[in-house]
Amino acid sequence: MTDVAYDPWSPDFVADPYPVYSALREEAPVFFHEPTRQWVISRYEDVSALLRSRSVGRSYLHTASHEEFGQLAEPEFLRPFWDLIRAGMLDVEPPTHTRLRRLVAKAFTPRMVEGLRPMVRRLAEELAGGLVERGGGDLLAEVAEPLPVTVIAEMLGVPAADRRLLRPWSADICGMYELNPSQDTQQTAVRAATEFSEYLRGLARERSRAPREDLISALAQVVDEGDRLTEDELIGTCVLLLNAGHEATVNSTGNGWWSLLRNPAELDRLSADHSLIPSAVEEILRYDTAAPMFERWVLEDISVAGVDIPRGAEVALQFASANRDPSVFAEPDRLDLAREPNPHISFGLGIHFCLGAPLARIELTESFGALLRLAPGLELTAEPKWKPGFVLRGLTALHVAVPSS
Fold first, then answer.
1. What are phi and psi of 225, to 5 degrees?
2. Cα angle, residue 24 at apex, residues 37 and 265 outer, rounded to 5°
3. CA 165 → CA 127, 162, 188, 363, distances in Å?
4. pLDDT 10s digits, 75-125
5. Which of 78, 356, 367, 404 is the most buried (most CB within 10 A)?
6. What is the pLDDT of residues 193-226, one digit of tens each?
């Protein structure tokens, strides 16, 4: 049952994985999936425990070489990609991760993020207003995509003329996170990583000489007990902030509006009471998770739900399944915009908990708020289709109409 039903390359599974997840949680909460060579973990209790466990990690290279860990060495042509990614904190483990997160957090502070809210609200209202003026359009392309990339560009200090470059770079780099990316996808990711690195290196050096009121300048100047980010680490951090903060937010916006439009009673409830927006955002993140699966390497032998998993294996933690686990969420398949409590794990847990979660919540809150205020009665004009990727799960487009008032 499991090998046939769990198929992350199947369009039907990508469109609606939840019946399969329900069966897995009941019948095979931990099983080995031969096509991906991964142990699939689907229950909330197990996923959350592994996210906090130091027996698994985003990387194993702090403990062993590829060969020592039983893995093939990475092709040399991928070096520019991995050098860039591993210069940030996402794919490294302590003590390197601890050091990088401490330094970045000194610049990327809660106060700084909250200070972005007026700018985010203004941008959200401009984009929503444009959609209204046109009588509708593709909500993804016209609102969801421009908002986070503009916010991150403003935050980093990327000149307005260069911002058109960021979205393609981000999308091309993130293609590497899908399961078994093709050779073309890998080559494209390397090219994007190289171009983005070169661009940011020039910008970082310029800001080191002449700092401004932006995050690149702040990261270049941050010092903690004599320690500071290297130029490569600064660049890796900026790329991580764009990729992690952009792709997931775009997909969360599209998935969220599709969830609302499929549940008109809840959309009416939200339209009538905008004070529900913060809890609605949390429920949207839970209900149709934009990053449904995260992988971890097993650093030492572990046992999960009575199943032994050896060192060197890879586990596929099913966030989207955990977020629908009935042992944690009452009526998990029902969209409840006032759900309380709502301990979803869409931002992760443990040391890799998403550093950008506060900014993502601001962007989603202001985006949904602007559309609810300015475009009441939003209507779907075409059934949306899902992109083929599963690790970053989202719609290709979301075409809507805004009825004239």
1. 50, 45
2. 125
3. 19, 6, 14, 21
4. 999 999 999 999 999 899 999 999 999 999 988 888 999 999 999 999 999
5. 367
6. 999 999 999 999 998 899 999 999 999 888 777 8
Q: Position of tokens 């979660």?
A: 357
Under 8 Å between Cβ of 382 and 241: no
**Torsion sign (Cα): 8, 10, 16, 19:** negative
- CA–CA separation, 232 and 319 (whole Å): 31
Residue reference for tokens 């991906």: 36
Distance of CA 256 to the CA centre of its chain: 14
DSSP label at 260? H
How far, CA to CA in Å, does 206 sit from each of 150, 195, 212, 233?
Answer: 21, 17, 10, 16
Instruction: Assign residue 121 a region (left: φ > 0; alpha: ψ between -120 and 50; beta: otherwise).
Output: alpha
Angle value at C-alpha 391, between 390 and 396, nearest 5 degrees: 50
Q: The whole model's pTM is what? A: 0.94
- The full set of domains in the chain, from first to last, is 2-401 (1.10.630.10)
R_g of the chain computed on alpha carbons: 21
Q: pLDDT: is 1 or 393 the higher one? A: 393
Neighbours of 157 (CB within 10 A): 18
Task: List pLDDT tens digits, range 353-379.
Answer: 999 999 999 999 999 999 999 999 999
CA distance 346 to 101: 19
User: Distance (Å, rounded) from C-alpha 353 to C-alpha 337?
Assistant: 23
Please tell me the distance from the alpha carbon of residue 64 to that of residue 66, in angstroms, as a whole number. 7
Task: Please give the single-letter amino acid code of residue 67.
Answer: E
Task: Count how many Cα atoms sit within 13 Å of the Cα of residue 308 in the half-sphere of its side chain.
Answer: 3
Question: Helix, strand, or coil here: 333?
Answer: coil
Give the tens place of pLDDT for each residue, 273-330: 999 999 999 999 999 999 999 999 999 999 999 999 999 999 999 999 999 999 999 9
SS (H, E, C) 40-102: EECCHHHHHHHHHCCCEECCCCCCCCCCCCCCCCCCHHHHHHHHHHCCCCCCCCCCHHHHHHH
Average pLDDT, the chain: 94
